[in-house]
Amino acid sequence: SMYPLLVRDGLAIPYLTLHVITWSIWWILRPFSVPELRSWQVLALFASPAASFLLHLIELKVPAPPRYPDIHVLLLMMVSAGWCVLSFLASNLLQTRMAERSDTKPKRE
After folding, report:
1. Between the CA of residue 98 and those of 82, 88, 95, what are the distances in Å?
2. Per residue in 12-38, pLDDT tens?
3. End-to-end distance of the chain based on CA atoms, in angstroms?
4. In whole angstroms, what is the distance from residue 67 CA to residue 98 CA?
5. Of the candidates 26, 27, 6, 5, which has an alpha carbon nearest to the alpha carbon of residue 16?
6. Which residue has the higher pLDDT, 68 or 32?
7. 55-74 b/e (C-beta count within 10 Å ≥ 16 → b)
């Protein structure tokens, strides 16, 4: 979501380089992270970098219409906010399920 600010400051190339390095490291380490992922979780993990890549590609290749000069920034912010909300809800749901499965009740003697 900071991409428009980094472009304005002339830091788009370092951003894209770090973006590629980050996703490459994630791709290499993904088998060790969570072994029991469901199909929808794997889809969500691949959708995030795919949406990011697609939005950056659109910004580079498709010019913004004169009537809406900030449409690319708006799309990027909408996707970023959506992923933030979905990540928040998913992490809270995961924590709730993990807490229900674990033995958290104190033992009486």
Report:
1. 24, 15, 5
2. 889 888 888 887 887 777 655 665 666
3. 53
4. 49
5. 6
6. 68
7. bbeebeeeeeeeeeeeebbe
